[in-house]
Amino acid sequence: MARQGVIGRLPVTYDPARRRFTVENLAEFVEKQIFQKLDDLAHEKPLRLVVTFERERKGRTLSQNRMMWALLTIMADAYNAGRAGGVSPEDCYFFMLEEYGLEYDFLELPVAALPILRNAYRLVHVVELLDDDRCTAKASMGSSSFTTAQMAAFIDGIFDRLAEMGINDPNVTQYWQEWKEVPRWKKRKS
To answer: Which domains occur in the chain, in start order?
Structure first.
């Protein structure tokens, strides 16, 4: 999720011998899009910007995300014993994140500011309503901030929990076999 105000992200490589940054070849399309956005914002006048450099990190993969939600849906179905309602896959997601040790920021803020907080964080839960229309909320980026290695460990934990629950579902067996076939370096590359 791009931070508010971010116009684009352009991968570059820094060469310490030459003390130069080089835009990566694969980023040509992205570079063109960024220039188009900048042109639109500038309205043909100079535009002041702040450039921020961060280390590249490999975020969780789309296939990891799909696997996680498939497993969490099976977990929710098991908790509900086939009945509608009750525990949702999202509830299981929160349970597992808590068990995984996800760190939260605890913030006191006006209740009216909750929509702003929800734009900045993926997970926002009001912990306590306070006087003067204020509240305490816990907020986190959730698994969207995980590297592929962290996500692989998280999915391993979900498989472990399903095994502890004694879930004997053919889909879980199939997912486990698919998961074991993916080379560890692909699941854990960070």
So the answer is: 1-56 (no CATH), 62-188 (1.10.3790)
